[in-house]
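Narrative of activities, Objective 1.

The group set out to show that a structural description can be obtained from nothing but a protein's sequence at a throughput compatible with the screening campaign. Below is one input-output pair from the validation batch, recorded exactly as produced.
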Amino acid sequence: MPALTEPQTWTMIGAVIALMFGMLTIVSTLFIRILRAEISGLRGEVIGRFDAVDWKFESVNSRFDSVNSRFDSVNSQFDSVNSRFDAIDSRIDGLDRDVRALVKHTFGLDRG
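Output recorded for this entry:
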């Protein structure tokens, strides 16, 4: 086995170390590039899916808006029906008062 004092041995050790650092640099650089490319691709896919979900939510919101407008229409119809019931109720109260007056008059209950 040769001694470590020979220049060729030190040159070979230096070359091997330089190759190892070079390979480490190349591999880490390529790994980082691949990782960035994958992350950007994933980012694009996630953004696309979020856009699709946003579009679905917008369509559901528009459906709810149309349902709300229908409910507003139904509420206005109920308001008109309630006003008609109030009018009928006041007429019935008037009829009740008139019938009581007629009964009192007919049966002589109003004479004291």
